[in-house]
Amino acid sequence: MSATNVSLPVPTQADTTVLGQAAKSTDSTYKILYFGLHGRGELTRTLLAYSGVKWEELPVDWATQKDLTPFKCLPVVYETTSDGTILELAESQAIERYLANKYNLYGKNAYEAHKVEQYFSSADGVAQAFSQKIIGAAQDKRVEEANKFYVEVLPRCIAIHEAHLAKNGSNGHYIGNSATLADIKVANVIDRLLFLRPKGADEVPFSAEKTPQLWKVLEKVNAHPTLAAWKKTDRYQELNAGTKSMFKF
Amino acid sequence: MSPTTVLPTVTKASSEVLAEAAKGTDSTFQLLYFPLHGRGELVRNLLAYSGAQWEELAVDWQVQKPKTPFQVAPVVYEHTASGSVLELAESNAIERYLARKYNLFGANIWEENQVNQYYHNAEGLIQAFALRVVGAAPEARVDEANKFYTEILAKFVAIHEDHLKQNGDNGHYVGSSTTLADLKVAQTLDRILLLVPKGAQVPVSAELTPSLWKVKESVESKPSYAAWKKGQRAHELDANTKARFQF
After folding, report:
1. Which of B70, B155, B163 to mutate to test binding with chain A, by most A CBs within 10 Å of its CB?
2. What's A135's DSSP letter?
3. B interface test, pick of A83, A111, A164 with most B CB neighbours within 10 Å
4. What is the mean pLDDT of residues A184-201?
């Protein structure tokens, strides 16, 4: 049986002016190195799918690849630009912002970019709290912790976000009339909370009736054709299973 | 006159108008945050570094909380030269906004990505520190701190010393000028150096971590930043932070 090729692309060595010029390319192709679960790779995969670019996954052999990555952690994304330059992108939140910036998901100006980051940060806080309190809880405590979370942490954040979305015109967007990283991040967090409900826990308090504005954001993001197509793939189902298995849900 | 607790009225206008107003580097700022470092430290550092005129609002959280965009602090109110008041929220969003405004975010999309990369890697370190050391019961702290220093901090140091040398060991993470990455890492080190359990010793110094130390010194060489760090308020915040977490 032949060994899987686990070699990594070699990033182009050049100064940042040259790399900055190459990075302007919007018809790049991408390779992502991340494990077989959603984890810290989920939003990056979502953004690659959403943007409609050509992308593929690299096989993981962490023991041999670890020392070849910039921070000895994943995800890492290798971008091949239209002029053949290979750029190495690391740290999930940096990658997410880079892709959003490049594919017009960062707002129209510095003020809108700030608003995108506000909502991203707020949603990320919820995701981190969920990760610590529920994913991080001992299995026999999970139902209790989840129920507490749904009642003590979520409602206030939901109310704040519902109000912001209503103020923006109840159009399924956080900023203006078009999708930004804020929408995609929030949709991702809601999906994660819905997906990782411990068996026997209460209903996660998101629905078209309970959280109409957030539900609109979620539906709009998930209706985006290239993202919808990604979510129907076998690989996506594998990642679902890998996630539940990894965290014992 | 003592600082006010009254929050400024935020200008309502289209994002184009606000973005235009936001371009100026001659704005003044008001910061709403509690009297410790916490999630306000890097914001305060950036305001000081920028050389902009800024002041702190007095906190009356029960009254002010519902008036803030996410019911959390910090919030920063920017008063532009044209008379608009912009409301900035969420610490890392505020930090990036200030970095963009004051040319601390790199010269292009690639450099910006590099800045973000080091920022987030440092954020990972400080979160681990908060969880394992600050979050430990006081009697377990020396042990937890020593574990953190040898298992987590040591790895961070090795990776970052290497990256900094690859960038020319010039006291900067990206190119040859200060960026948010430098300021974030300097603040991260400051936090770890401030919250040391009695009996523990942080393996960070000019001798042990020369390239990282250079980053710290480079940031501290900016006069407005140095003046802030030497000032009475910064010392108060140090003391309050230690007291709050029982260090």
Report:
1. B70
2. I
3. A111
4. 97
Going by pLDDT thresholds of 50, 70 and 90, the confidence category of residue A149 is very high
CA distances from A53 to A22, A26, A221, A226, B131 (A): 16, 9, 17, 9, 38
Q: Is the pLDDT of residue A44 over 70?
A: yes
Instruction: Answer whether A121 sits within 8 Å of B93, measured CB to CB.
Output: yes
First to last CA, chain B: 32
Nearest CA in chain A to B110: A20
Measured between CB atoms, which of A71, A89, A160 is closest to B121? A71
Alpha-helical regions (H) of A153-233 = 154-167, 181-195, 212-223, 225-231
**Whether A14 contacts chain B with CB within 8 A:** no
> What's the CATH number for A16-102?
3.40.30.10
Say yes or no to pLDDT of B160 above 80.
yes
Contacts of A109 in chain B (CB under 8 A): 15-16, 19, 22
pTM (two decimals) = 0.96
H or E element in which residue A200 lies: none
Residue B141 corresponds to which tokens in the numbers above?
A: 């702290």
Q: For B243, how many CA atoms within 13 A lie in the half-sphere containing its CB?
A: 8
Domain chopping of chain A, boundaries: 16-102, 110-247
In DSSP terms, which residues pair with B240 in a beta bridge?
A: none
**Alpha-carbon dihedral B117, B121, B123, B127, rounded to 10 degrees:** 160
**How much is the average pLDDT of B189-209?**
97
Domain covering A110-247 assigned CATH 2.40.420.20 in the classification: no
Structural domains of chain B in order of their starting residue, each with its CATH number: 15-101 (3.40.30.10), 109-244 (1.20.1050.10)
Give the 3-state secondary structure of A60-96. CCHHHHHHHCCCCCCCEEEEECCCCCEEEEECHHHHH
Query: Under an 8 A CB cutoff, do B108 and A17 touch?
Result: yes
Is the predicted pLDDT of residue B183 greater than 80, yes or no?
Answer: yes
Reported as a single tens digit per residue, the pLDDT across B106-140 is 999 999 999 999 999 999 999 999 999 999 999 99
The secondary structure element, H or E, covering residue B20 is: helix B15-22
**Phi then psi dihedrals of residue A176, to 5 deg:** 55, -145
What pLDDT, on the 0 to 100 scale, is given for residue B21? 87
